[in-house]
Design brief:
Blueprint (H helix, E strand, L loop, with lengths): L12 H30 L8 H16 L14 H13 L8 H32 L14 H7 L3
Helix pairs in contact: 1-2, 1-4, 2-3, 3-4
């Protein structure tokens, strides 16, 4: 993945590059962990994990890596920071704490979490600023009479 695929108006170019670097370092390990867990769980009579969920995570991680992930069917393919964070957490749930690549995956999850937090704060600040510039509108649209529900409740109709 390249940093230009991490596109979010609230994420800086340097943060996008950090995410891309951590992703490139952790993705092969995440893929191999998921492959191993899925293969092992398929061979047992009673799997201890939700195989369909792990297969979906593996597929979506590949889409994230290629920049073709779609949050919904109508959206263009892209890298989604929030979806990537959810998928990385799913990988961490099945990763052994002693795995040599666990640290890289945890650092990626941290970088994604920081980006989500920063984007959330920026969005909130932007929303508050926009809200402060819009004059307050009466809830009833400026009508003098009471809303229909109020008139019905009081029996004035």
């Amino acid at each position: 993945m390249i940093a230009t695929e991490v596109q979010n108006r609230f994420i800086t170019e340097s943060q996008a590059q950090d995410i891309a670097d951590r992703w490139n370092g952790a993705y092969p390990a995440m893929r191999s962990i998921l492959d191993a867990v899925i293969k092992a769980q398929r061979s047992v009579e009673r799997p201890t994990v939700d195989l369909a969920r792990l297969e979906r995570v593996r597929r979506e991680l590949g889409q994230q890596d290629r920049g073709t992930f779609k949050g919904c069917t109508r959206s263009p393919g892209a890298f989604s920071v929030s979806s990537a964070y959810i998928q990385v957490r799913e990988v961490l749930a099945v990763t052994s704490i002693g795995d040599p690549d666990a640290g890289a995956i945890h650092r990626l999850a941290g970088e994604l979490a920081d980006a989500i937090t920063q984007a959330g704060r920026a969005f909130s600040a932007e929303w508050e600023a926009e809200r402060a510039t819009v004059p307050a509108q009466p809830v009833d649209g400026g009508r003098r009479e009471r809303a229909d529900s109020e008139q019905t409740e009081r029996g004035t109709r």
